[in-house]
Amino acid sequence: GIQVEQSPPDLILQEGANSTLRCNFSDSVNNLQWFHQNPWGQLINLFYIPSGTKQNGRLSATTVATERYSLLYISSSQTTDSGVYFCAVEHPETSGSRLTFGEGTQLTVNP
Amino acid sequence: DGGITQSPKYLFRKEGQNVTLSCEQNLNHDAMYWYRQDPGQGLRLIYYSQIVNDFQKGDIAEGYSVSREKKESFPLTVTSAQKNPTAFYLCATGTGGGLYKFFGPGTRLTVL
């Protein structure tokens, strides 16, 4: 099956700093989503981005499907950005629109 | 309020007992999914259902069972055959052909 690798596994920032999270995947995808899991376990869908670039406030994401990677940018980080960021992908030949998740990047933003 | 409800939030069971986790949605989404998350790891797919009265095994279905009798409901039973059931269980729905995923708040199951 498709493999998803996220880096770095852990990231510690001071409030106000910028960061880039990376997601590499091993095969073509027709679906790529970024999620944020807060400290209580809730997953929030940040972006649906199988290709191209999107922005939502301080967050933006870019997926270069031909090179099999996606980047999540967080600017002017805040303590509420802390949590785990997951990249999840779907291969076009997979039935049921099933997502395969990476192991996540644990982000800690200190005040 | 539209959304996905999972109950209970925390669940404790003795080893050898079956337990059923509830997932209800009022988003009118056709697809529903169950994922398992272990500490420090990503999510793994247990079962999924694209329409009522139909469901498919995911990557780690052994020791679990599901039903989909109503569009709104997709309960997961963790049976005594599941060797390591202690985990965080997340239910999700999908729309847009299943492409857009939305997650419930999760149930933390601890088997003593």
Number of helices of chain A: 0
SSE series of chain A: EEEEEEEEEEE
Largest beta-sheet details of chain B: 7 strands, mixed
- Our estimate of the beta-strand percent of chain B is over 45%
Bin the helical content of chain B.
Answer: under 10%
Oligomer classification:
heterodimer
Q: What level of helicity do the residues of chain A show?
A: under 10%
Radius of gyration of chain A: 13 Å
Separate helix tally of chain B: 0
Order of helices and strands of chain B: EEEEEEEEEEE
- DSSP summary, beta strand count of chain B: 11
Helix-and-strand structural type of chain A: mainly beta
Mean pLDDT of chain A: 94
Low-pLDDT parts of chain B are none
Specify the overall morphology of chain B. Answer: globular
Largest protein-protein interface: A-B, 24 and 29 residues
Poorly predicted regions of chain A: none
Largest sheet of chain A: 6 strands, mixed
Number of E-type strands of chain A = 11
Using the alpha-carbon principal axes, give the shape of chain A.
globular
Q: Would you mind describing this structure in some detail?
A:
The complex is a heterodimer of chains A (111) and B (112). With 111 residues, chain A is mainly beta. Chain A has no helices and eleven strands. The radius of gyration of chain A is 13 Å and the shape is globular. Chain B is built from no helices and eleven strands. Chain B is globular. Classes of the chains: A mainly beta (111), B mainly beta (112). Chains A and B meet through strand 4, strand 5 and strand 9 of A and strand 4, strand 5, strand 9 and strand 10 of B.
